[in-house]
Automatic annotation (TrEMBL):
Organism: Polaribacter marinus
Signal sequence coordinates: none
Domain Electron transfer flavoprotein alpha/beta-subunit N-terminal: 3-182
Family of this protein: Belongs to the ETF alpha-subunit/FixB family.
GO molecular-function terms, A-Z: electron transfer activity; flavin adenine dinucleotide binding
Name the record gives this protein: Electron transfer flavoprotein subunit alpha/FixB family protein
Length: 315
């Protein structure tokens, strides 16, 4: 019996969430009295994972896996889980993982719990704590199947060093499909993505028009942040749909979320409230966002944001 974690990477480098899932996998393995094995696809330095407790790292480097394909990736993870006799498979909470985890669950006839935030509260029955109702509540969920899939929510368990002397070996997987049925057609490079970002700078209809996003992009660049927006902003075509965050957009679980000219409608807050620190800049002191925020500035974005950029640049 073992715990298998999928340590995801971009352009050969591990994502921060890879270290989170390995740290989490180590904890689960300790609770089960087993060991943690990490699986990587196209990552450059597998040994980086030893630091967080991965005793064994399986590396897959098939060129057919250069582009993400949920079915193929799920097939590779399932094959590795079977080969390693893994009872628990752990993935992160990225959009890619949300696609592939249910397929892994079907392949392994396993129960799947997404949005898990902490180590199992019990191993018998196997019970995990998850975010529920748009992150407004927690639920304790029993995974009753022999095999279990866990989707770990970002920024919930943290990264914990637990150095081990690990080994690394290549894993030869049989690819599931002859013809690719799904394809990722958008890839953003050279910019922080919302899913990976520690800081997200988000703006809403208060910005008046797309021509005013220069200062938002500049603030994001100074902070090393991703840019995001409210739904109406992307509906109006001011910003790409990939930036829309909220209940019907991308979820955000950043360390810092800065909302500029966003009112704080419940559907917006539902998608971003897993962020640790929330800051709002809004002219209207009655805007609902002030109730949800940790810090607020009542002020005009066109005055506040340039000053903020100036101060941060001088920092
Ligand atoms: P507004 O509500 O128009 O707010 C603009 C804010 O800017 C105001 O508070 C105003 O005081 C402030 N402002 C104006 N001028 C300035 C200035 N110069 N400086 C600073 N502040 C200023 N919305 C989402 O965002 N994400 C979702 O996923 C989402 N899903 C939805 C799903 C459903 C089923 C429905 C019905 C709605 C959904 N919405 C979603 C829409 C949501 O209800 C709100 O309409 C939307 O979030 C409002 O966007 P906004 O805050 O940018 O605009």
């Amino acid at each position: 019996m073992s715990v298998l974690v999928f340590a995801d990477s971009t352009d050969g480098k591990f994502k921060k969430t890879a270290f989170e899932v390995v740290s989490y996998g180590k904890k689960v393995a300790e609770q089960l009295g087993s060991n943690v094995i990490a699986l990587t696809i196209k990552a450059n330095d597998a040994s980086e994972l030893y630091k967080y407790g991965a005793e064994k790292v399986l590396t897959v480097s098939n060129d057919a896996l250069n582009t993400f394909n949920a079915k193929e990736y799920a097939s590779v993870i399932s094959q590795a889980a079977t080969a390693q006799n893994a009872d628990v498979v752990i993935v992160d909470a990225s959009i890619d993982s949300l696609y592939l985890a249910p397929i892994v669950a079907v392949n392994l006839e396993a129960g799947y719990a997404s949005n898990v935030v902490d180590a199992p509260t019990s191993t018998s029955p196997f019970t995990v704590k998850r975010k529920a109702f748009s992150n407004k509540a927690f639920s304790n969920t029993v995974i009753a199947t022999d095999k279990k899939i866990i989707g770990l929510a970002k920024n919930s368990f943290g990264i914990h060093e637990n150095p081990v002397t690990g080994t690394s070996e290549s894993f030869e997987a049989t690819l599931a499909e002859s013809g690719v049925k799904s394809e990722k057609i958008e890839r953003v490079t050279g910019k922080v993505t919302i899913a990976d970002a520690d800081i997200v700078v988000s703006a809403g209809r208060g910005l008046k028009g797309p021509e005013n996003w220069g200062m938002i992009e500049e603030l994001a660049e100074v902070l090393g942040a991703a840019t995001a927006c409210s739904k109406p902003v992307s509906d109006l075509g001011w910003r790409p749909h990939g930036e829309h965050v909220g209940q019907t957009g991308k979820p955000v679980a950043a360390n810092l979320y800065i909302a500029i000219g966003i009112s704080g409608a419940i559907q917006h807050l539902a998608g971003i409230n897993a962020s640790k620190v929330k800051v709002v800049i809004n002219t209207d002191p009655e805007a609902p966002f002030f109730k949800a925020a940790d810090y607020g500035i009542v002020g005009d974005a066109f005055e506040v944001v340039p000053k903020l950029i100036e101060k941060l640049k001088a920092f």
